[in-house]
Amino acid sequence: MTEEIPQFSGHVAALPALPGLPSDFRAFHQLYRAPYVRWAELFLGSWADAEEAVDLAFEQLALDWLQVLSQPVPQAYA
Questions:
Q1: Residue pLDDT, tens place only, 38-62
Q2: Which of 19, 38, 54, 57 would suit a FRET pair with 9, their CA atoms being 20 to 30 Å apart?
Q3: Measuring CA to CA, how many Å separate 54 from each of 5, 34, 48?
Q4: Residue 51 · residue 13 · CB < 8 Å
Q5: Non-local CB neighbours of 44 within 8 Å, separated by 6+ positions
Q6: Is the overall model pTM greater than 0.85, yes or no?
Q7: 59-74: per-residue pLDDT in tens?
Q8: Nearest-5° angle of CA 13, CA 18, CA 21?
Q9: CA distance 76 to 61
Q10: Using an 8 Å Cβ cutoff, are 33 and 75 in contact?
Q11: Long-range interactions of 19-28: CB distance < 8 A, separation 24+
């Protein structure tokens, strides 16, 4: 069974609340957003910039979710 992923733009901090996203994506987002933001802050020097970068990355991940799942280590790919 394949779930369609809606196209959207903007920040995705609230993605788990949006209907239509696969449950495995919502779980991935919930587990990894905070650590990814902390990691990005080290490189960007700003929490707000890190959140924006990670949210934009999660938007792209949502659009390419089936490809992400086909990777040997989706967390590393993300």
A1: 999 999 999 999 999 999 999 999 9
A2: 38
A3: 19, 9, 10
A4: yes
A5: 50, 53
A6: no
A7: 999 999 999 999 999 9
A8: 100
A9: 12
A10: no
A11: 21/62, 22/65, 24/69, 25/61, 25/62, 25/65, 28/61, 28/74, 28/78
What six digits make up the tokens of 25?
Answer: 């994506």
- CB under 8 Å, gap of 24 or more: what pairs does 52-58 form? 52/11, 55/11, 55/12, 55/13, 56/11, 56/12, 58/12, 58/15, 58/29, 58/33
Q: What is the DSSP letter of 29?
A: H
